[in-house]
Amino acid sequence: MHSVMKKVALGSLMSLSSMSYAAPMWQTIETEHFNVHYTQGHKRWAESAAHELELVRNKVLEQQNRSLEAKADVVVFDPYHGANGFAIPSTDKPLMALFTTPPQSDTVISNSSGWQQLLILHEYIHLVHLSQPNRSTWRQTLRDVWDPYDIALAIMPRWVAEGYATLMESKMTGRGRLFDNYTEALLTEFARQGALLPYSALNNGNDSYLSGSMAYLIGVRYLAWLEKNYGEQTLDSVWTRMQAVESRDFDEAFKGVFGDHPAKLYKRFVAEYTYLSMASAQDLPELDTKLWHDFKFDAKNLRLSPSGEFIAVTERDSKGRTELNIYVTKDNEKAEKDFNEKQKALLAADPKDVADNAPETFGRIKKHTLTPSNFSGIRYARWKDENTLYFVASVQKPNDQHAVQGELFQWTLDDNQVTQLTDDAGIRRFAIDKNNNAIVAEKVRYGYSHLVNLELNKGSETILSSNQLGDTYDYPEISENGNKLAYLKSGLNQNWQLYVRDMQTQNSFQVPTPKGYQFLTQPSWSKDGNTLFYVAGVEGAINLYAYDFSTQQLLQLSQGQHVVSFPQQLNDSEMLYLGISSEGPDAYTLDMDNTASLVTELSDTKQAPKLSNASVQLDDAQIYQQPLQSKPYDKWDHSASMTLGSQYYSASTEVLHLGVKGSDFLEELSWHVGLSKSLGDSTLVGGFADIKMQQGNTEWQAKGFSFELDTAAQSRGAEVAAMAPHTLQQTGLSAQVSHSYRQNMLSLTGHASVHASELDTGLGNQDERWLRLGLEQSWQYDKQAFAIGQQIQAQWLNGKSGETDWQGYNLTATIFGKAFHMPLYIQAEQARREDSLLNVGGFRSSLIDQNVMANTIYEPDLPFFAGVAERYQGYGGGVAVSEGAPWLYYQQHQLDNQVFGQSYGAKWTTWFNGRDWSAKFAPAGISDLRIDIGLSRVESERFENENRAWLGLWFDL
User: Quick check: 538 and 520 in contact, CB under 8 A?
Assistant: First the structure.
């Protein structure tokens, strides 16, 4: 049996290697002040970014006399197929990440001279702002050697860090979110409703609509208000004071120069902003509009079915959970009837009572709901016919298991079936060409945005537009008769423009826009194809416009009464649209005949005005064409940090870990050396040296170790099994190679480990040798509220202790999932040894892990060697109130078919191990940091029942 398991494990490991995707190959462009790292396909974007980075650095140095003392690493890639970026401040190893996919027209970051320039400026300001060295010699020395302290001193309140980067992005480009018409309209609407966030919620929001974005949107306006009223130098001096010899946090540094706490001045800012917003509403005319449907939180992408009988809308709750819902468009007569009958019954029972007023709308009946599967999302849904919708969801890229892109899916309502229609398309918004069974979509790859025609039957692709960096396309819309294609386009230093192309002649026409506009998005055809509706922003208001091709006139349908979005023609005289308020978007109808006014002043330029009067500004954005020399990424360029960790386990001991840890910034090669010692007793003392190398999906690990474990010295040493050694000294080496494969939600990992050491248990020295082969498989299916998954871990071991040969296996099966958004799991594990013994209890640490003591079942609420047996069986399960919350768990232990004990309580673990990109690129002294917390009740007939606790902060390389 063991020989069969060995062959299966070896075969599985070889099979995994053969079916792995090729890993992205990283290249580096080195400039005077930056190392720009990029993946295959991003070379042109990275070359231009390298030029832009040096220009931005020089301008920021001129503007505020600050720069980075250390050379910064810059990573250029596209993990999410969306516009974003981040920065990790550090005085000795700063890093920024640039996502190459440009923003779409209806986002708050669409107002820029160029995505690359805006992104680089914003992230570089973060680094310069937060990575300044401390003028205290001892504090800066500690920052230089200890990454966690370096990061801690760089942290500011989120609204300050994001608000200041947004302020500089706007002042130095004349564009950005401070001057964004859409943002201004949103905040004006919120202020009119008395809904600007309190200061206490400015950092991280309060679960209200868009509150998570207000650190940027309100933060930048508050800082601009401070500069206007107190002077730029006053605000700048706050940053200077925060790095002084005298230790100050942000509040202390702020109050010292402004004379008041930031929360107090924020109230004054909110009062002034609200006053101006209310004053601007006084002269607004009444809008002939009615509430059509009240959505619960967030709603996007209204789409009427071809018959007009249904409407599709993508909704999201305050926790970020998404649904695609189909509503019936006719009035909800049943709800209205039920309401009226309830009021009649109420007055019949009590004639003197006052009945409820009827709501503005009884809403619409929900007919169908689709929730996304496996975290893929649902975006840009639209009708193919009355029974079929297309939408875009995120799918793993074929050549990179750590990145996703948009693919087209089909949802049929009659059988509730979802089918993927494209592979490796990389698309965002699209329009359906019903005459040719094709779609016209915006495709984004390596930062290049362009329009393509995808024939769904043939799988062929035709490029329909220019394909050059700096241009961005959005919102393709095909008229009902299929003759006209509308789309949006933005170029460098330009506003968005709206074009219409004749599908037969391919001639294009630029649709007129109002003079002074800055925001332009969401075109929508009338049913007859003669009118094109769109949303545009002028002077801080977002309005609905209609261009009539027959009369060649532009009409304005609203005058700032609502923040209008997603217009659709409901019938000949009414429009349906989403009006955004502080509680989220709701659907309204608008009588077009009573609100339309002719627009006589039209825009005559594509260029976007720069609204900043700052003395130092960036030049116009451009894509720099000069090629730069690249070289293969250097995994040997390392940074290092002191590490300090501690683990407390009431059942065994408290251990202090002190070491040095280093890695390259991609963590292709990481290492950690250190010493560990128990505090207050002599339970554990030793040293270790770990090294890990990653190449794509393959990982090599090696560990050298030497330690002494005194089981009797543990705080619960009396519980140690009689057969257990009282002291254990071991010195040796271990090595492991593993290879993983992932396809969507299926994951497979195989590994092979070897170990060689010298062991002294007080009965003489003996050599320890063993080989372990393992295979881990997991799969899950997630539908947000409900999920199901399983994991199997199988290991076969073959070893020799002294003159005794032994064999064994470990097997664990887990079923996990969610019910009503609450995570849960059940688990069964079994381990067996022949001619050797298993021991139960103890904890993993930087010194001791599964490659050091392979015959140990680690249980943190039991002491090392609490039990000894040939066979172990464990059964347990747990539940948490939400994802990321502590587990309430139960675990039973059986040794040689006898119940040894049980424990139940709460436990929580988090691990900065590269599961998301911000953790992967974290400094060496932060990555692989693990936190374990637990509180349990342990019960057994072999020792006294008691409560136990553990707390660990350590590095798990």
Answer: no
Cα–Cα distances in angstroms (integers) from residue 4 to residues 13, 739, 796, in the given order:
14, 21, 10
Q: Which two tokens stand for residue 46?
A: 């990275």
What's the token pair of residue 290? 């009615």
- What is the reported pLDDT for 6? 38
Q: Is the CA virtual torsion 720, 722, 724, 726 positive or negative?
A: positive
> Which pair of tokens denotes residue 470?
């700096």
Q: DSSP state, 68?
A: -
The pLDDT of residue 424 = 94
Closest CA to 782 of 818, 741, 746: 818
Write the DSSP symbol of residue 493.
T
Per DSSP, the residues of 783-830 read: -SS-EEEEEEEEEEEEEEETTEEEEEEEEEEEEEEEETTEEEEEEEEE
Looking at the predicted structure, is the pLDDT value of residue 4 above 50? Answer: no
Q: Is the pLDDT of residue 12 over 50?
A: no
Q: How far apart are CA 885 and CA 896, in angstroms?
A: 34
What are the residues whose beta carbons fall under 8 Å from the beta carbon of 918, sequence distance 6 or more?
A: 86, 88, 97
| Inter-residue contact 326 to 388 (CB < 8 Å) | no
CB 439 within 8 A of CB 454: yes
| Secondary structure (DSSP) of 847-872 | S--TTT-TTEE-BTTS-TTSEEESEE
Residue-level pLDDT at 90: 94
Q: Give the list of residues 6+ apart from residue 259 with CB closer than 8 angstroms, or none.
A: none
Segment (H or E) for 887: strand 887-895
| The pLDDT of residue 512 is above 70 | yes
Half-sphere exposure (Cβ direction) of 135: Cα atoms closer than 13 Å: 10
The residue count of the chain comes to 957
Q: For residues 40 and 21, what is the distance between their CA atoms, to the nearest angstrom? A: 14
On average, the pLDDT of the chain sits at 94
- pLDDT band of residue 400 (cuts 50, 70, 90) is confident
**pTM value surpassing 0.85:** yes
Sheet strands (E) in 696-745: 698-710, 727-743
Rounded CA gap, 422 and 434, in Å?
17
**Average pLDDT estimate for 847-862:** 96
SS3 content of the chain, % helix, strand, coil (to 5): 20, 45, 35
Residue 336, H or E segment? helix 333-349
DSSP class of 383: E
Residue 18 has pLDDT above 50, yes or no: no
CA distance linking residue 722 with residue 224, whole number of Å:
71
